[in-house]
Design goal:
The protein has 361 residues and is mainly α. It folds into 3 domains: 156 residues, no CATH class; 81 residues, no CATH class; 52 residues, no CATH class. Helix content is 65%, strand content 1%. Strand 1 and strand 2 form a beta hairpin. It starts with a helix and ends in a 7-residue tail after the last helix. The relative contact order is 0.07. GO terms for molecular function: protein dimerization activity. Pfam families: Dimer_Tnp_hAT. This is HAT C-terminal dimerisation domain-containing protein.
Length: 361
């Protein structure tokens, strides 16, 4: 064996450790990708462990069971399906979790994801997945047939030949059709259902706030007034109103010329209002934009906040008030802002405010 071949055989492949508390879509694709890319090598490693003399019986048994699972043709097809879907889902998920995300961009991303899932839900695409799985199965010496139960003995994988040859025709059987319907189509239908649910929720919010993304455009006056009243209704609770629809309409019409150069960028518009001390001039626009920009597009921020709270509670291991816990979580989440603050100046200011001086006569 040449040195290069020996090096390739001994190349280290790192697989991420599963963590129930940190299970996310991003980590899921990170777990799928090395398995999808290096399945034959992982099988070889499991085979070596199951037959090694330097491992205990439990490790050898676990390795044997895992090796038997991954050399199933159904597993290989499932791996291909999940890799294809999660790669696209991971891309969209990263877009949705960006800091400057807004509802319009989120809706566009979800629309593209929905189109992708519908596009791949075809018999032709399933056949392509099966053909790709056959190539991997050939490297693992696995028969390209769908099975209901397995009793395949574990054996060393043969080294693939260096020349090409024709594959035998594989007849379509009932098990293959069952896999297509019960696995491939089912997974895609569930994914489409989840995307539709998220899309409908965001679309309902977008119907309410969409006109705020056109503050510098010439909008239809009747439609603009109707949108302002619709927003007032959504932001009201009992007799409490966050905004006044008629005042909001007048502010938008009056300030439209001021926002022309900002290209309907709601973040820049809100910054412009504060930098030019216009909050008293257009208070309803200010409130509406603040609500719009603080509405979560995804639950990523909530997940991070939860993680920070749990981290603080586990680290301190003591009871504390809710106010203190919330403040510590805020400090931990906004670490970048905290690094810019001079702690010594805060301490000095605190001592000056709290110092008790008693005059001695």
């Amino acid at each position: 064996m040449s040195d290069s071949n020996h090096y390739k055989k001994k190349e280290i492949i790192w697989l991420p450790e599963f963590n129930e508390e940190k299970k996310t879509r991003r980590r899921t694709i990170d777990a799928i990708k090395p398995l999808f890319t290096n399945l034959p090598e992982i099988y070889d490693a499991l085979y070596e462990i199951s037959n090694g003399i330097s491992y205990d019986q439990k490790a050898k048994y676990d390795a044997k069971c895992l090796a038997e699972k991954i050399c199933s043709f159904s597993f290989i097809c499932s791996l291909n399906i999940w890799h294809m879907i999660l790669t696209k889902v991971n891309f969209v998920s990263k877009i949705l979790q960006s800091i400057d995300m807004n509802m319009q961009v989120a809706l566009d991303a979800l629309t593209e994801l929905k189109k992708f899932l519908i596009k791949i839900r075809t018999d032709a695409n399933f056949e392509e997945i099966v053909n790709d799985a056959m190539k991997i199965a050939e490297k693992l010496n696995v028969e390209a047939e769908f099975e209901t139960s397995r009793s395949r003995p574990l054996r060393r994988r043969k080294t693939p030949k260096s020349f090409d040859y024709e594959h035998e025709d594989h007849t379509i059987n009932d098990l293959k059709t069952a896999f297509k319907i019960n696995v491939f189509f089912y997974i895609l239908d569930q994914a489409l259902s989840s995307v539709d649910e998220r899309f409908n929720l965001l679309n309902n919010q977008n119907d309410v706030f969409n006109f705020l993304f056109k503050l510098s455009d010439d909008q239809d006056q009747a439609r603009l007034r109707s949108s302002c009243h619709h927003l007032q209704k959504k932001l009201s609770a009992n007799d409490s109103l966050d905004i006044n629809a008629d005042d909001l309409y007048e502010e938008i019409v009056s300030c439209q010329s001021l926002f022309k150069k900002l290209n309907n960028d709601v973040v820049k518009i809100l910054e412009f209002i504060y930098l030019n001390n216009l909050t008293a001039v257009c208070p309803n626009i200010t409130i509406a934009l603040r609500i719009l920009l603080t509405m979560p597009v995804t639950v990523a921020s909530a997940e991070r906040s939860f993680s920070k709270l749990k981290l603080i509670k586990n680290y301190l291991r003591s009871t504390m008030s809710q106010e203190r816990l919330t403040n510590l979580a805020t400090i931990s989440i906004e670490e970048a802002i905290l690094d810019q603050i001079d702690i010594h100046e805060i301490i000095k200011d605190f001592t000056n405010r709290k110092a008790r001086r008693v005059e001695i006569i």
